[in-house]
Design a protein that fits this description.
- This protein has 17 helices and 23 strands.
- Helix 8 (412-425) runs antiparallel to helix 9 and helix 9 packs antiparallel against helix 11.
- The longest helix is centred in the N-terminal third of the chain and has 39 residues, at 3-41.
- Among the domains are: 3-146, no CATH class; 169-270, Sandwich (Immunoglobulin-like); 394-463 and 492-573, Up-down Bundle (Four Helix Bundle (Hemerythrin (Met), subunit A)); 606-675, no CATH class.
- The strands form six sheets. Strands 1, 2, 3, 5, 8 and 9 form a six-stranded antiparallel β-sheet that branches. The protein has a five-stranded mixed β-sheet with strand order 4-11-10-6-7, with helices on one face.
- The chain has helices spanning 3-41, 43-66, 70-80, 100-113, 127-146, 350-353, 406-410, 412-425, 432-454, 500-504, 518-539, 543-563, 606-614, 629-637, 645-657, 662-675, 691-700; strands spanning 158-159, 172-181, 191-193, 198-201, 205-213, 220-223, 229-230, 232-234, 237-243, 248-253, 265-270, 276-279, 284-286, 293-294, 298-301, 309-318, 325-334, 341-344, 348-349, 359-368, 377-387, 401-402, 567-568.
- It is 36% helix and 17% strand.
- The chain has 705 residues and is an alpha+beta fold.
- The N and C termini lie far apart (127 Å).
Length: 705
C-alpha cells in the first residue's frame, strides 16, 4: 500500500470526529445568538445571525480537521504503537531512496500496522465543553424569552404631565403609560409611551394604564367627539383599551365636575399608504432587429411592505384596423429585493405569447401590499412594446395628407365589446351597485366614441351652440349653412392625443375637410345609431342587451373602413365674410352686447368667516361668548380638506370652555385663517412709465418735452 493511501485511511476518522465535534460545540452558541437576535431585532436578524454563524463554524471546523496531517500521524503512531519501533516515518518514504535495510524495516512495520484500526487514533469528544455550552445556551435562551421587552409585561408608569393643581379630596392623574401595539402586518414592535399624546398606525391597539392620587371612584377617558371610554380598575391602576380606527382628541377625567378641566390629548392615526408603482422602462418601446424577448422593469415601494408575488396583465393587439385581434392574460411573477422596495423584471418571450410583427404588447403590473385584512391593490402604469409592420405606408401623390388616425377610432368599438363581455362574466361576483356602475362606465366610453364618429357626419354631435364670432348679419343660424356643435373635448380613453380631425378639421358639410362619399356617410350614420342604442342599454345596466347593437355598429364600421380613405386638404381657416358697406359708417344696428355676466364664486366658508370676524377686533367682533355650534358643524363637514382638523376642533373646545381667554381666541382665529379657502389673486398693477415714456406721453398730449 502506498504512503498516500495509508495517510488517507488513518487520518480520515480523526478529521471526521474533529469536524463533527467542532460543529457540535458551535450549535449551542448559534442557538443562543439566534434567541438574542430574534428577541432584540426580530426573526430576520435571528436568521442572519444563524447563517453567518454556521458559515464561520464550518470554516473553523475544516481548519481544525486539517491539523491531522502526516506529521501528526507519524508522531501518534510512534507514541501509541511500540511494535512499530519508532519507524512509522518509513511508511511514507519513497521506495527508490531507501537502503536495503530500510526497505526491510518498512515491510516489517507495514505488516504490523493493520493489527489495530484507525479509530484508535481519533481524538475524544469534548464532552465537558459540550455540557457547559449547552447549559449556557439554555440559560441564555430562557433569559432572552423571559426578559420583558418594550410593550410586553407590566408597564412602567411615568409621572403625570397634566400639570393640574392639587386640591384636597379631588383625584388627579399622578402616573401614566400608553402602550401601542401596531397591527401584525406592519412588522413594528409594541412600544410604551410616557406621553398620552401619540401617533400610531391605523388599526393599532391602544392600552392606557393610569394611576390617580387620591384614588378615583369612576374615572373615564372623555372623547371630544364620541362616547366616553370607561376605565376598569386593576389593583392600584386603572386600565382602558381601544382600537385606533381614526384620529381623535380626548382628556383624562378623574372626577367629572370636580376640579380643573384636564388638558386635551391627541392621538393621530397614520393610514397605510397604498403601494407606489414606478415604471423604469420607457412607456413606449419599439422592437429592435433580432429582438426575441422583452423585460419590462417596475419598482414598487410601500411603507410596510409589498407582497413577494404580483400579477402582470399582458394585452396583445395583432393586426391593423378592424382586423385587429385582441387577447388578454395575466401571469404571476415574483419580485426581488426587500419587502419595502421590490423590483419586478419579468422576461417575456415573444414566442410564448404569440407576439409578431404589426402588433402591440401592453403590460401592466398589479401589486398588493401586506395589509391584513383587505390588502390594497394597485395597478401600475401601462408599458407598450410596438413591433412595426414591415409594410411601408402608401402614398397616392394627392395634394393633402392622409388621415391615418381614423382607423384608431374604428378599432375602439371592439374594445367596448370586449369590456362588456368581460363584465357579463363577472356579474355573479359583483354586487348590483358595482355591476351597474361598471356598466355605466362602459356606456360613457360608448358615448365618447359615438361623439367621435359624429364629427365625420358634419358635426352631428351633442353640445351647446357657440356664441357668434362676427356680426350677426354675416354668419347666423338659418342661413343655409350647417354649423354643427362645438368641437368635443378629447376623451380620456379613446385616442385623445390622436384626434387630429376633431382638433384641426372644419366639420362643415360643404368644406373639403371631409370627403366621405354619400354611401359611406350613410353606413357611418347607421353605425352611430347602433352606438346610441348600445349606450342606452349600458347606462341602464344591461350590457347583455347592448351587445347586439355593439356588434352591429362594429360591422358597419368595418364596411366604412374598407370602403374609403379620408383626406384632409391643406386649407386655411374659413372666416365669415365681411360686409364692406358697414365699414367707417358708425352704424351699430344689429350688434349685441358681448359683455358676459360674471358668475359669483360660491364659497363654503361662511361659518368659518363669521367666526373669524367675531373673534377679531373689527365691527363684527363679539367680546363675549361666541356661538360656535355652526363652526363645529362646518369643521366636521369639511374635515377632509382642513389642514389640521383635530387642532381646529381642540381650539374650538378651548374657546367654548373659556370664552374670555384671549390666547384661546387668538389661537382659534389663527386656525380659521389657515382653514379657509385662499382668495383669488388680483391682477397686478401695471408699472408706471420711465422718464422716456413720460416725455413721450407729454409729447402726444401737446405738452412740453
Amino acid at each position: 500500500m502506498s504512503g498516500d493511501a495509508i495517510l488517507s485511511r488513518w487520518v480520515a476518522p480523526a478529521r471526521q470526529r474533529r469536524f463533527i465535534d467542532t460543529l457540535t460545540l458551535a450549535l449551542p452558541v448559534l442557538i443562543a445568538a439566534a434567541a438574542i437576535g430574534g428577541r432584540l431585532a426580530g426573526p430576520w436578524a435571528a436568521a442572519m445571525l444563524v447563517a453567518f454563524g454556521l458559515a464561520a463554524a464550518v470554516l473553523i471546523a475544516r481548519r481544525r480537521a486539517a491539523r491531522f496531517d502526516r506529521n501528526w500521524l507519524t508522531s501518534s503512531l510512534d507514541r501509541t504503537r511500540p511494535d512499530l519501533e519508532d519507524s512509522s516515518a518509513l511508511l511514507f518514504a519513497e521506495a527508490p531512496s531507501l537502503s536495503p535495510l530500510q526497505s526491510l524495516q518498512r515491510a516489517r512495520i507495514a505488516e504490523r500496522l493493520d493489527r489495530e484500526t484507525p479509530d484508535k487514533l481519533a481524538p475524544g469528544w469534548s464532552r465537558n465543553a459540550m455540557l457547559v455550552l449547552a447549559l449556557a445556551a439554555i440559560a441564555i435562551v430562557a433569559a432572552a424569552w423571559l426578559w420583558p421587552r418594550a410593550g410586553e409585561g407590566p408597564p412602567t408608569l411615568a409621572p403625570s404631565q397634566e400639570g393640574t393643581p392639587a386640591r384636597p379630596g379631588v383625584p388627579r392623574l399622578s402616573a401614566q403609560n400608553l402602550r401601542i401595539i401596531p397591527p401584525a402586518y406592519t412588522g413594528l414592535p409594541a412600544r410604551d409611551s410616557a406621553s398620552l399624546d401619540a401617533r400610531a398606525p391605523q388599526g393599532a391597539r391602544l392600552e392606557w394604564t393610569l394611576r390617580f392620587d387620591p384614588q378615583a371612584d369612576a374615572p373615564h377617558l372623555a372623547m371630544l367627539s364620541g362616547k366616553p371610554l370607561a376605565l376598569r380598575r386593576d389593583g392600584a391602576n386603572w386600565i382602558a383599551s381601544r382600537t385606533l380606527d381614526a384620529s381623535f382628541l380626548y382628556r383624562v377625567d378623574p372626577a367629572t365636575g370636580r376640579g380643573p378641566t384636564p388638558p386635551l390629548h391627541r392621538v393621530d392615526a397614520v393610514a397605510d399608504a397604498p403601494p407606489q408603482v414606478k415604471a423604469i422602462t420607457p412607456g413606449l418601446t419599439l422592437v429592435k432587429a433580432g429582438q426575441r424577448s422583452w423585460t419590462p422593469v417596475f419598482t414598487v415601494t410601500d411603507d410596510y411592505g409589498v407582497a413577494a408575488t404580483a400579477r402582470l396583465r399582458i394585452t396583445l393587439a395583432i393586426g391593423e384596423g378592424e382586423n385587429v385581434t385582441f387577447s388578454e392574460r395575466e401571469i404571476a411573477i415574483s419580485g426581488s429585493g426587500p419587502a419595502r422596495d421590490r423590483r419586478f423584471a419579468p422576461p417575456l418571450d415573444f414566442s410564448r405569447f404569440g407576439f409578431s410583427a404589426g402588433g402591440d404588447m401592453v403590460v401592466q403590473l398589479i401589486v398588493r401590499d401586506n395589509r391584513s385584512p383587505s390588502p390594497q391593490e394597485v395597478r401600475g402604469p401601462s408599458l407598450i412594446l410596438r413591433w412595426p409592420s414591415a409594410k411601408a405606408p402608401e402614398s397616392g401623390g394627392l395634394e393633402g395628407m392622409v388621415n391615418t388616425t381614423l382607423p384608431a377610432y374604428f378599432r375602439s368599438q371592439r374594445q367596448i365589446i370586449i369590456d362588456a363581455e368581460a363584465l357579463i362574466k363577472q356579474k355573479s361576483r359583483l354586487s348590483a351597485d358595482r355591476y351597474l356602475s361598471r356598466s355605466a362606465t362602459i356606456g360613457g366610453d360608448q358615448r365618447i366614441l359615438r361623439g367621435r364618429y359624429s364629427q365625420f357626419l358634419g358635426g352631428e354631435e351633442e353640445g351647446e351652440p357657440e356664441l357668434p364670432t362676427a356680426d350677426a348679419d354675416g354668419h347666423h343660424d338659418g342661413d343655409g349653412h350647417d354649423h354643427g356643435g362645438p368641437p368635443q373635448q378629447p376623451g380620456v380613453g379613446f385616442g385623445a392625443p390622436e384626434d387630429v380631425l376633431a382638433k384641426f378639421g372644419h366639420p362643415h358639410d360643404d368644406s373639403p375637410a371631409s370627403s366621405l362619399d354619400p354611401e359611406t356617410r350613410a353606413i357611418l350614420k347607421q353605425a352611430v345609431d347602433e352606438m346610441w342604442q348600445s349606450e342606452r342599454e349600458l347606462r341602464q345596466g344591461h350590457p347583455d342587451k347592448a351587445l347586439p347593437f355593439a356588434y352591429k355598429a362594429l360591422r358597419f364600421i368595418k364596411e366604412v373602413q374598407q370602403a374609403t380613405r379620408i383626406f384632409l386638404a391643406r386649407v386655411g381657416p374659413e372666416l365669415p365674410p365681411i360686409d364692406p358697406t358697414r365699414r367707417m359708417t358708425g352704424k351699430r344696428e344689429g350688434l349685441a352686447n358681448r359683455t358676459l355676466d360674471l358668475t359669483p364664486v360660491e364659497r363654503q366658508d361662511g361659518p368659518a368667516a363669521a367666526a373669524w370676524r367675531a373673534l377679531g377686533s373689527g365691527p363684527d367682533a363679539i367680546r363675549g361668548p361666541v356661538n360656535l355650534a355652526p363652526l363645529e358643524q362646518w369643521a366636521r363637514t369639511h374635515a377632509d380638506r382642513l389642514p389640521d382638523a383635530l387642532a381646529l376642533t381642540g381650539a374650538i373646545d378651548a374657546v367654548r370652555r373659556d370664552p374670555a381667554c384671549a390666547a384661546c381666541r387668538a389661537s382659534l382665529r389663527a386656525q380659521l385663517w389657515t382653514a379657509m379657502e385662499r382668495p383669488l389673486g388680483q391682477p397686478a398693477r401695471r408699472r408706471g412709465g420711465d422718464a422716456a415714456g413720460a416725455r413721450y406721453l407729454r409729447a402726444i398730449e401737446g405738452g412740453r418735452q
